[in-house]
Amino acid sequence: MAVIKHIASKNSDYGESERYLIFQHNEYTRKPILDEEGHMILREECYLDGLNCDPFTFASECQELNSYYHKNKNFNEIKSHHYIISFDPKDRDECGLTGERAQQLGLTFAKKNFPGHQALVCTHTDGHNESGNIHVHIVINSLRKYDIPQEPYMEFDCEAKAGYKHHLSTAYLIHLKQEVMDMCKKEGLHQVDLLTPAERKITEKEYWAQRRGQEKLDKLNQKMKEDGITPKGTRYQTEKQFLRDAIDDAASTARSPEEFSKILDEKYHIIFKISRNRYSYLHPGRKKYITGRNLGTRYTEDFLLKTFEENTKSHKEQKEEILEQQTPNTSTDSPTVPFSDTSAIPAPFIFIKSDLRLVIDLQTCIKAQQSEAYAQKVKLTNLKQMAQTVAYIQEHSYDSLDDFHATLDQASDQTSASRKSLKDTEQQLKDMNEQIHFTGQYLAYKNVYADYRKSRNKEKFYEEHQAELSLYDTALRTLKEKSGGNKLPSMKALYAEKDRLVELRNRQREDFFNHRDYERELRTVSANIDMILKKNYEQLHDRKEPNL
């Protein structure tokens, strides 16, 4: 597929564009690569032509034209426009695309779409990031040199006159994309629809941020491996990619915007809002929302509402179909699993969080050491937190440090126990979902297997229904391994057990969060007590020191 990219440059040095096209450059820093003697290195294969100018005097001719019309003198003016047409890497091997042919296509494209402009047309065959794709660079002076006929995609009449600047409007960009598509279709090259918005919109800035972030992460992981430490993460994610992955996961199961918002908040701590029928998302590390349109069409209102409807419809159809196929007397060749006791679900541990915060150690706080005003503010805050800590100890009637540490150890044990219970329930829920999945798969293809047993020509029947029979065998084998050959329970009982496990998981999750917050609060109190005792010891030591 061929794509076209546009870059507007305010650099008044037109020679930099020439050097970039002719000499090798570092893709990260955009700086030229030098040899041992400090000279720039020519690109291994490139084709260069000029349009309305000599390619090797492009810079001086552009400056001469600018001076003639007294344009492009201000710093904020766009001096040149850089268009890049990147062809599909498969075009080289499958379609016979060469550098010479791409250069001719680029020249034809530039003459047709940028007439009257001084332009450089250069083809590189090395590809970006060693991808091997052939791409054409078209660099034009923003000032038009010759008059041309008025075109429909031009927004203003003056754009066709000499001495006026190139203006890339929305209609102009659509025209250029259509021209690239028509060119590739005519030449028999791979091509996709460039006019349809991308499902996952990745900008040039995000692309390079991901590249640089991944490179830094790889270096850090390599250093950790050398030190004998196993890295936790090997894939770098931009903030937008984190949002995309989280939204894809939440949208795969959500059946309404409310459920979708709840999943994003609980699982990924992403805040979801709807403003003027536009979906926006707030990353946990940001203060500004990112609209779904900036992420791609998969994350906008139209696509997600359609996904919610499909999820609701699919859930209902699957449930109705399985319940209809389920009969009261099941065959003995289908297994079952024993259900857990459906006793009353215990109420979660109740905890009301206080506003107690850690006391800051001024000796280790760099900012406090650099700013007296900030240090004074920290001292006042510390006094307040110390007073609250003392009040907390008196309120909860801790007679000694041993009593308090015993309570802290008990809270830590309760947190560990609630975490273990939550993990066990989540594993049971996972097993139950798998049981429902394979039971539905078994029932869906049970009739196909019965017809196979009754067929006279089993080989022919198996060839025609190999996929269905394979799914049936997989489901039956998995169910037998899980339950040891008992009868298959009804889907109604399976869904009832799943609902019970979901309710139990939600209660246990709330219980775990409360225990965890309670333990954290006690640890904050413990740290503050240590700081208070440390301060008292230092003050006592300072008082005794003069007598020594």
TrEMBL record:
This is MobA/VirD2-like nuclease domain-containing protein. Residues 314-338 are annotated as: Disordered. Pfam families: Relaxase (PF03432). Residues 44-145 form the MobA/VirD2-like nuclease domain. It comes from Blautia parvula. Residues 324-338 have a biased composition (Polar residues).
